[in-house]
Write a structure and sequence with these properties.
Shape: elongated
Strand order of the largest sheet: 5-4-6-7-8-14
Radius of gyration: 24 Å
Helix content: 40-55%
Strand content: 15-25%
Number of helices: 14
Number of strands: 15
Distance between the termini: 45 Å
Length: 378
């Protein structure tokens, strides 16, 4: 494609023709009418330039103006290049990962894109082997979802040396476009609510704050938990002298359960606030308190608002007081839009953040009204 060589300063390339082709490619189906701002956005051209090209193409009979500010191509839509994308999934143990994979597969099918999917199985060695496979497959771009921060530079180097663009989900990889949580913001949302909850229900204070980490994911996901602590203290300053304990639950229910169970055997605290890296960790902590007969002594905040977390939020009297939603079921369409922008050489920011929303026992049915329907149809 001519536009792929635009950055190489080809002396024979006519830039105005390249710009016109990019603009005409914005019209994806016959009869589609677009406003100027959408044409500019899809083509990656400045609005003023898009207007001048549209005006010229209209005069040439290639574009027609519909109404005040709508344009329609008079040409048959350009056939888009069929891309082959590689996707290395995090794993299938938790619903969050499954939702990301399902949404991505659905979006790729809708765009007619071939998606070569592999499973990292939450394992750094397998992630490296999968990277080698995708390099051998000579895919046009890779979407990587692997959790181990120490392996990220190794995986990223494999793709960089093969000249394959990379999008990294949730855990940053050197040189990759990051897609996922705004960890600091998500942590603040959860921490502030947990602090308000404690202030309202426990006027006499809190004895201990427990932060459940996922250490191998590195510093950026860790920010999600540390900012929860910031949020708690911001709204409830009385927490400032409170003891803070960190445990590494590896993002898993079972590991967190065992770590919290051991901690509760030695801790003399009467009231605990728990901020967890994700919902499986939050549920593991909650099960430990339940086993110890100390359920009423804790208030727990999760992250992801995953189906298992939402199910717990619906339990009467649950001490999972909230979880911050990431909406992984919408990841696919957004990630694919970023991937196509990269492949079409359009400007892409180094990080693309998802929107977050607090989910509580009081709001879960409003934010996720279809959960019960989906359960009855499975």
């Amino acid at each position: 494609m001519a536009q792929q060589h635009a950055g190489a300063r080809d002396p024979y390339l006519v830039k105005s023709v390249v710009h016109a082709s990019r603009l005409l490619s914005a019209f994806r189906s016959s009869g589609e009418a677009l406003p100027l701002r959408e044409v500019a956005s899809r083509s990656g051209l400045p609005k003023s330039m898009a207007f001048r090209i549209l005006y010229t193409l209209e005069r040439c009979g290639m574009v027609e103006k519909v109404g005040e500010n709508l344009y329609r191509s008079s040409l048959r839509p350009f056939r888009q290049k069929l891309y082959r994308l590689g996707y290395a999934a995090q794993g299938t143990d938790y619903q969050f990962s499954k939702d990301v994979s399902t949404s991505l597969e659905r979006a790729a099918a809708a765009e007619g894109i071939e998606l070569i999917s592999l499973d990292n199985r939450y394992n750094p060695k397998i992630a490296q082997r999968n990277a080698d496979i995708l390099v051998r497959e000579k895919v046009d771009l890779v979407i990587e979802f692997q959790t181990d921060d120490h392996v990220a530079p190794i995986v990223a180097t494999k793709y960089r040396e093969a000249n394959i663009p990379l999008i990294a989900i949730e855990v940053p990889h050197p040189g990759a476009t990051y897609f996922g949580a705004n960890n600091y913001e998500a942590g603040l949302i959860g921490g502030r609510y947990l602090g308000r909850w404690a202030k309202q229900h426990w006027h006499s204070g809190v004895d201990e704050i427990v932060l459940v980490q996922l250490d191998r994911a590195g510093s950026l996901p860790r920010m999600r938990v540390t900012s929860m602590l910031v949020g708690m203290k911001e709204v409830f300053p009385a927490l400032e002298p409170c003891k803070v304990t960190s445990i590494d639950g590896d993002g898993k229910l079972g590991d967190t359960f065992e770590k919290m169970r051991r901690h509760l055997r030695t801790s003399r605290a009467r009231r605990f606030l728990v901020g967890a890296i994700n919902d499986p960790s939050a549920l593991g902590a909650l099960r430990a308190f339940q086993e110890a007969g100390r359920t009423e002594s804790c208030a727990i905040m999760g992250q992801n608002a995953s189906p298992e977390g939402r199910a717990e939020l619906r339990e009467p009297g649950t001490r999972l007081v909230g979880s911050v939603a990431y909406f992984p079921e919408k990841y696919g369409e957004q990630i694919l839009a970023v991937a196509l922008d990269i492949l079409h050489r359009r400007p892409v920011p180094p990080a693309v953040f998802v929107k977050h929303q607090l989910v509580t026992p009081e709001t879960v049915n409003h934010i996720y009204p279809n959960d019960e329907l989906m359960l009855t149809t499975v």
